[in-house]
Each structure stands twice: as C-alpha cells, then as structure tokens.
Amino acid sequence: MLEEDASTISKYVEAATELLARATEASAEDIAGLNRVLEGLQRIVAGFGKQRVLELSGTQLMNVGVELYNAPRAAMRVLAQIEDNHTDEQRTSFSRYSLALTRFVAAKVMELSLICSKDDGAQEKSGKKSMQFMDECVGVLRSFGRVGMLMLESASIDCAKCEEYLSLAKESFSSSMQLWSRVGLSHLTKFKHGLELEDIVDDLWDFCVDRVRVLQLLAQRSDTSPEDSRDIMSSLHELKMLTPYKTSYASSLLDIMLRVSDDYKHATLQDLQVPFAEEALRIGESLENAADENFPELITSFKQHLLMNLLQSLCASGDIERAEACYQLIPDNRDRKVLLLMNKLYVENKQFEKAHRLLQLLFQQDCFEDSLAGARTFARGFSFSDKGLDIYRELASNYGEADFAINVDIACNLAFVEGKRYEAIDELKRIGCALLEEQRCIELASYKRKCQKTLQLIGRWFAYQLQKMDVEVQVPEAGFYLFPCFRRHRKALALKGISTDEQLCAQLLQDTGVAILPGSAFGRAPDELFARLAFVDFKGDLALYLIESMQDDPSLEAIEGFIQSVCPNLDIAMRKLAAWMALARPSAAPATAGVGY
After folding, report:
1. 409 or 442: which carries more pLDDT confidence?
2. By CB count within 10 A, which of 73, 205, 397, 422 is most buried?
C-alpha cells in the first residue's frame, strides 16, 4: 500500500471528527455525511488489514485511531440529554448506532496500527519499545472491550438495531480476546504491577463476562452454532485464569457457568449442554479460594446443580451409560428429582431391576407425590400388568395412610389401557363409596394443586427474569410474591440518586408505572435494597384451565406463552423493569484524555 493510500485513513478521520464537532447543532446532512464517512472508513480499514502492508508509521496511525475514538464524546453527551428528556426542545443528534459504530471503527484503526506497522519487529526487541508496544496492545484491547460493553448496553436501549449491536459487540469482544491472547497473562505481569495490573485484570474480567452474555443473547435469537459454544468456553477459561487475582472471582465464575447451563436446559439444547457441562465441571473442580471458608460448599452446590442439568440432557437423549456415570458423580444422588429421572430412563430401557432399586430409595424419601409418580412410570413400563401393579402394593406398604389415593391412581390408569377398562370399572366400584365421600376433598386438593402449580410457574418465570437482570432472588416453591435484592446494582442506582429501597420503589413507579413495595416495610434495612414483588394480577379461570395441560417441568418457551396468555400485565411490567434496570447501568467508560483507550 502506498503512502498516499494510507493517508486516506487520516482524511476520513478528519472528516468524521469535523462532523462530530457539530454535536450540538447537527443537521440531517451532517448525520448522513457521518454515515457515509464511516462506511468508507470501514471498507478501507478492512482492505488494509487484509494486505498487512502499511507505509504509515504505527505511532501516527495509532494517534489517528485515538482521535477518532475520542471524537464522539460531545455527541454522546447530547444524545444522553435527549434520551433522558432533560430538554423539551426538538433537537437533531447523531444516532446512538452511528456514535457506537464510530468507536468501533476507531478501535479497528488502532488495531490496524498494531498488526500492520512496519515497526512491529523492532518494537518487540528492545526493552523500551517492548514496553510501549505492550501499553499499546493493552490500550487497544481495552478500547475493543469498552466498545463491546457500549454495544451491549445500546442493544437494550435502541431495540430496533438490537441484532446489529449484538453482532458488533461479539466482534469487539472477539478482537479484544485475540489481542489478549497475543499479550498473555504471564507476559503482562512482567510489565504491570500493583494497582495498574489490578485495573487491567478487572477490565479483562468484565469484558469476558459481557462476552458470555452477548453470546447467550445471540443464542436466544438464532440457531446456536458450535462456534458460539466454543467461544463461551474460551471466555470461561480466560475467566478461570483471572480467578487468583480476586477472591470474589471464583464464586462469580461458578454462577456464570450455572446461568449458561440453565439457558441450555430451558432451550433444550442437549447437544450443547453435555459438552459444556463436562467442561464446566473440570473448570469448577480446578478452582481454589482459600480466603472463602464457604467455598467448598459452593463447589458442592455447583456440582449438584450442574450435574442435574447434565443428567436431564443425558436422559432426554437416552444415553444410559453416561447417565449412570453422571448419577454416580452427583453429590446428593438420592435427591427425588434425580431418582425420578433415572427411574424413567431405566423403565424406558426395560431395565426394571435397576428401576425397582431406585424406587425403593424413593419410597423412603417421605414424599408421596413423587413416590406415586415413580410407581406410575414403573407400572406403565409393564403396561399396568399384574407384575407392574405389584409396585403399587409396595408403595402402599410405605404409605399405608394413602391407600385411597393409590387405588384411585390404579383405577384411572387402567382405564386408559386397552383390555383393562373393565378391570378399572371393577376397581372404581370397589372404592366407589369412599370415592363419593372423598370427591369434594379431591376436588379441593386438585384446586389447591393447580393454584400452587400456577403460582410456582409464575414465580419461577419472574425469578428467571430477575436473575437475567443480575438481581438476587430466591426461586419460590410457593406463595405469590418474591423478595428480590438489588444490592448488586447499588453503584448504578446511586447515579440516579437511589440509596434506599423506598427511593428505588418510588423512582421505578415514577419512571415506569410499575409498583413494588420496599423491603423496609417487611423488616429489612432500607439500605439493603430489598423489595417485595407480588404477582397476583392474572386471569384465574384461564390459568386453572391452562395449567392442566402444562408439563411438570415445562420449557421456558411454554412458560413464556403461559405468562403472556394468563398475566399479560405482569409480563409488561417485567419488561418495563428490565428496560429500567438496563438504563440504570453506567455507560461504557469513555476514553481517558490524552490516552484514548
């Protein structure tokens, strides 16, 4: 590439900088002009990157990139004022997408100065120049990471271009990680120490975490590719390397891996869940945190949760050999859900002796509903023949007080088996008198179960939505409210002048119309940022009708449809809360004056 060709980059940057300098009085022509300049600059930078030959000095090109990166500052302030409705007058501004794209292109120019500079070889030889080159690599790495964070934030604000933002966020974080692989942690620690090293490690952690979040969001919107799954695993390995530098990193990494696994579970992505869970287990077992005395318990809980997800995928795919190996690894493999999964798998594979042994363990758990479900699965495997019905007699010996419920279950299931209907009628006649007496109680119990299942389903969905916002919340087993804690967002909320739960609830109501109660009304300290979120606004009759057709552990898509049909107002309220929380997050850190990274 000739010198005059390379100088074209400088001319495009000058043009973009001149246009962005008119941030307070941007015209429609200025906006269109910036879009044309960015389009041309992207094309040129991409072409030069492929040629890998540049006659312009690396320092000069780096300065051009820094200048372009800093250019949108004023325009972004104007856009923030317009978005926050700080002014009533109609003002024209550069679009959020154009400003974010400007910083992305600027990072690409800075990257070009690293990969194409004719001075690279010399820089890596001498100590002083090697230090300078290290600083430039770290600076560009941070620039790409901050651009990725800006794109992720913008995706929740400018929803019309959500896909474009996420695609650019993915590319930005990928470029950042490529530069990080070029630098390396061991090499970095030779040049950086103390607070400077700590700041860089903190940035790297945030970039990797947000990269995982971007890849998860992309997986929800399109077909998940194995490449995206590999990128997630790559980011998790990078996070593992950083865990020794901060005591909180190890437990945070466990939470991140569980969230990814749960997303695969809800999306029924069995082919991705299995390799991910196996690798996540290896990462979890390699983590250490001597400063946290509760960390061994966290590891045990992590393994229980992750192995449960893995077992569910293996059972769904019918991989009995690996499912058995997974079952042996589960810390609490006598958990009722574990036993029910394995019982069903053994019955489906006609391994009734193994299923029977697990049922004997299940019957000892003192949970009649799960025991009855396990017995029903076992008997169904024998088509409710006399041999299969023997399991009910064994169940009755463990739950003698439940004879009536057991007999009803037998009769009802026999009624659906060809050739067993007369037997079912005889059984129903035998218990007819008791059935009539207990009918009202059964209907009441059924009504209560439906109510409980409805509330569990809604509560589970609400908890999942809050967890996606990084809000601490306990998934409820029953009840009609949640008690989330917003303390993880304390710093971001403080920027809005919110330091107590009452201020949080008042500001949320004012901004969105969504009403929740402060935790201080229920005995919590105001600065703990707890809130009480009730979910009672739903169509009761419709809920009781639809809940009958819902599986015991429905997919996230099924729950979404249920929520939108039964409680549309709650769905709208949660979307408003999510948008409000996204706006509460601080913007990506602007470039430091004089440095530009």
Report:
1. 409
2. 205
